Amino acid sequence: MSLASCTILITQQTDRSIALTRSLSKALQLGTAKTVNLRLGSKNVTVALKPLNRKGNLLVIPASVATSIRLPSPGKCQVKATGNRELQIGPLIGFLTGINIPDGKPGQQKQFIREFLEAGHDRSYTFAFSPSGVNWRDEVVTGYFPLPGGKWVRRTVPLPDVVYNRLGHRGAEKTMSIREFKERFVSRRIPIFNWSFFDKMDVYRLLEDDLQAFSHVPESSSGPSPEEIRRMMEKHRFVYLKPTAGSLGFGIYRLTYNPEKGYFARYRKDGSNVLIRFPRFEGLMNMLRRQNIRLPNYVVQQGIRLIELDNCPIDFRFHMTKNGEDEWVVAAVGAKKAGRGSVTTHVRTGGMLMTPEQVLSTVYGSRGADILVKAKEVAVKLAEAIERNYPHRLGELGFDLGIDQDETIWMFEANAKPGRSIFKHPALKVQGKESLNNLVEHCLFLSRFRARRES
After folding, report:
1. Tens of pLDDT along 324-375?
2. Which of 3.40.50.300, 3.40.50.20, 1.10.1370.40, 2.60.40.420 is the CATH number of 92-193?
3. What is the pTM of this model?
4. Residue 336, phi then psi, degrees to nearest 5
5. I want to staple 238 with a disulfide (CB 3.0 to 4.6 A). Which of 119, 160, 256, 306 is the partner?
6. Among 3.20.20.140, 3.10.560.10, 3.40.50.720, 3.30.470.20, what is the CATH number of 304-455?
7. Is the Cβ–Cβ distance between 381 and 373 less than 8 Å?
């Protein structure tokens, strides 16, 4: 395979031939080939080759040929030649979403979609689409490409070469129709990554046979009985009760046991932090029942005494991505300081977003940099271990990690479709762009539009 970057021009000429500059033909090692099979995604057409006497890597395609392969526009992309005299242009990168792109409402998710699509500009044809936009019979998909000024253009293109799944509704992803929808890409050998959301216990089960990675996971129990909650409270002194399919810190209870004072529950209600004491364990459980807590839908997790700033616990969000070499890298790290009396470190409950350097230099002084390096190494090992045991492709993970007062590193959460709130911090905006670039590079790798390193 030979690969090159090029600029595609569309002309109104009527013949069925394409023209390449000599530099592009040489880069693609086409030799004396007179015809090729020109391909975009799942569409292809046989065309004649002509030389183009111009400088640079240019590929000129007649409008009739561009229409037959459903080329969305002229512009910069990649082109590769294979041994069977096939030229493939692209890649077509599909961003799978449930967001209604043309409704005119901006929204944070839509901004993320645009930023990702723009990160792929000049290297690919990158577009957003929803399940309803796919026509499996004709093997085409109607999606949206970004235009300057915040506008979008609707185009029907071939099935993509790779799919980045960011469907955002947990319930919908569990339906048979969506599972079958994703399997159709797999059956066509179209890579799709970030298969679905994780539930709280998914990662626990993925790692339980990987002893090195599992040593960083707090003791957890899914669907606990009251007796299991009491046992863990007495063993660890405090635990967290979390919804199995929860996110953003909603519905979390911190439960504490003090042999001299009784049982305590801390949680968020109506925008305020609540703390209640119960002399007996039964009183605690009765309160949870009144809150309509269904234990089969919850996980109880060992509490960890985290490092603190101003008597407020600190944890860290590690945003992990695959890169163009199919390797896990730490794209960014944000430190989250809990609000006073808050169960979690989320900003919406009074938490503060900081840089890890700010926190670790305050807590550890000159040793802070070494602690961060150690935490990054743990994050990469955790990502690699999850990937080894997960049956589908992953390209992105979000970890909530904590450091206890003995400097042990713990993983509390792993998200298969992590949010991007940490990139709101001014000091992390560059890392935000780098994370998008990593994802685009990984799409190039999966679609085989990137030179692969020899092993």
Report:
1. 999 999 999 999 988 665 666 555 555 788 999 999 999 999 999 999 999 9
2. 3.40.50.20
3. 0.90
4. -125, 120
5. 256
6. 3.30.470.20
7. no
